[in-house]
Structures are given as structure tokens and as C-alpha cells.
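Ligand-bound model needed. NAP.
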Amino acid sequence: MDLGIKGKRGLVCAASKGLGRGCAEALAEAGVDLVINSRTDADITRTAEEIAAKYGANVTPVAADITTEEGRAKVLAELGEADILVTNAGGPPPGMWTDWSRDDFIKAIDANMLTAVALMQALVPGMMDRGWGRVVNITSQSVRSPVSVLGLSNTARTGLTGFVAGMSRQVAGKGVCVNNILPGIHATDRAVSLDGNVSKNEGITPEEARKRREATIPTGTYGQADDFGAACAFLCSQQARFIVGQNLLLDGGALNATL
Ligand code: NAP
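Prediction:
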């Protein structure tokens, strides 16, 4: 399917690997000129080179911590304006609800809520002026169904979801569609790290931890970053113009709910 976005300009945050990279690859394949970001210079540079070579795309890497004001300023200076924004950042650490301090909450809210808000505030006005834009925020299944050990994530991402619910309706009339994608468990480094956490807490091997987590998913497998990216690219397409303020859960059916 031609997504109709060839030649658009896009930013994908936290994209040297995992879900962000999956999104960057799918957008590059659709012909979008990209700025991609993550903190480690060598990794983001290599990823940009690989994606550019694979799809013949223009891909500019920017090494920066997207959760800081300085990091965002560096990325935005390289980017200029954008038609497409995919927000993403590393997830907060797991833990016990009794242990988190105010600072822990502020850090999580900064990274997984206010960073996305700041990027939308920086880029969506230009999209509205030009009459076209797409934003996809990578959030988490924890917005629909809390993951108890990820209370910091549950909290911050639910805040972002509430913000998007209202804001997306305020900008849709100018041709800008803002939506969220909620990943369930995907086979990325983040999943490996959470498997490690389960393995440590339950005294089982990481392989057993993965098997147990896979058994909670009706598909019986973890999701793949390239499938995730394809869904993201569709939400950034011309054809997605009537999809506004939605939360697309990609979890292999793990959430047992009718709606
Ligand atoms: P991942 O495989 O660990 O990749 C994370 C990417 O983000 C890397 O490119 C990393 O590169 C970059 N990054 C991390 N912190 C950053 C920062 N502050 N500034 C810029 N780049 C940063 O993670 P993932 O699985 O793709 O997860 C992406 C997001 O989805 C996370 O928020 C995660 O919590 C959420 N999520 C994932 C799953 C899952 O099963 N995979 C499920 C639900 C939610 P550097 O380290 O070099 O910066």
C-alpha cells in the first residue's frame, strides 16, 4: 500500500534499536526523510547508516538525551520543522510502590510524559500552519492494564494519554492526527531486561521467565519491532486522516477485554 507520505519530514525519538528503530525503518521505507535520535552516538550513527542504505532514505542521526531540555533543543535544531513526530524514550525501572520517592516520580513523568508533551508543543503548531501532520506517541499496554512492578510507567504514561485525549481533538481540524500506540511485550532489549528481572525475583532462568511471559499472550509469542513499525507508519499515512486520539493496543491479545 502506498502510504502517501513520500518526501515528508519526520522525527523518530529513541530509535537506535527496538520499537523506535522499527518505526524509523517503516517510515524510511515509505519514503519519509528522517531525523532519528538516541543517546549513544556510535549506535544512532550506525543505525542511520544502515536504514539509509537499506531504503535509499535520507536519515540524519542526532545523539542526545531526549528527556532533557538541552537534548531536545539539539534534536529540534537539526530537525527544523517536521510533518511526522514519533515520541519515545526509555522506560522507567521496575520496583515496589512503597519505595519510589518524589524525585523518582518526577524523573519518570519528565521522561515518559512531559518529553512527549514538549515535542508536540514544539512541532505541532507548524504542522497546523501547514495543514498536515501526524504524531504517534509510543506509550505502553500499562495504560490499559497496569503492570504492578512498573508503577512509575503506569503513572507517567496515563498522564500522557489524558493529555493526548484532549489535545488531539483541538488540532484535528488543522489536519493533524495525534494517536498513541500501546506496546504489549515485544522482543527488544527492554523485554530481555524485564525477563531478567522476573528471573531474579522468581529464581528461574531468563528462558523460563520468557516462556512464562509468552504463555500470557494468546499469540504465544512476543511482538516484533518491524510489525510495530508498520502499524506506526500506517498511523502516519494519508489514509489515517480519520484516526484521532486513539490508543492502539499491540499486545497479541494479552488484554482480556471485550473493548
Ligand atoms: P529498547 O529496545 O531498550 O530501546 C530503547 C531505545 O531508546 C534505544 O535506542 C535507546 O538508545 C533509546 N533511548 C533510551 N533512553 C533514551 C533517552 N533518554 N533519549 C534518547 N534515546 C533514548 O526499548 P523498547 O523495547 O524499544 O521500548 C521503547 C519504549 O516502549 C520504552 O519506553 C518501553 O518502556 C516501552 N515499552 C516497551 C515494551 C516492550 O515489550 N519492548 C512494552 C511496553 C512498553 P540509548 O540507550 O543509546 O539512548
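Residues 132 and 175 are 5 Å apart (CA to CA).
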